[in-house]
Amino acid sequence: MARVEHSPWAIPVAQIASRAGQSKTIDADFPAPSGIGDDIVGIKEGTPVHVRGQFDSIVDGLIFTGRLVAPFVSECTRCLKPIDKDWPVDVTVFFPYESAAHDTGRGGKGEEVEIIAGEDESEDTYPLLENGAFADIEALIRDTLVESLPLQPLCKPDCKGLCSQCGADLNEEPDHHHDVADIRFAGLEALKAQLEAEQGK
Questions:
Q1: Of 10, 99, 146, 187, which sits most exposed with the smallest number of CB within 10 A?
Q2: Which of 47, 60, 8, 56 is nearest to 145 (CA)?
Q3: Proportion of the chain in helix, strand, coil states, percent, rounded to 5
């Protein structure tokens, strides 16, 4: 089994975890983990996900606040054109120390700090590894991006889609239309055609 420090998603944080009030800035690319969407809507495994943000050390753990930017590939659900663009997502997560969940009497303020850090300042919690020496962001990247993927991706918000009759791209042909007779008058149209045919004999 590979050691934690050899993981491409492991970030050493032991230095800032030693004392509250310290920070560590991250501005680097990490490979996209597997399982982020599929071939139709998703982010391909191994493609670079840019992570920019900061770890801040507090009494009972680390808070990471930043932004993930991943290469998003999909197909527009209206016009079927391929979508290939950067997908940015803001994130705030909490990495508690192993003892934080059990220590609520540190200076008589443990419970208060745990509530502030664990509930108000972050929505998701991830464990620190190797006694707080590393923050492994693999699950953070996967969870954040999976939750943010659109159910119906569009190439642009006002995409007009395709013609339902012939499949023409209405974005490229905005004046495209078909003259369609009202089906309520279909019988009369047929009678008219018959009479015209008889008169032409």
A1: 187
A2: 47
A3: 25, 30, 45
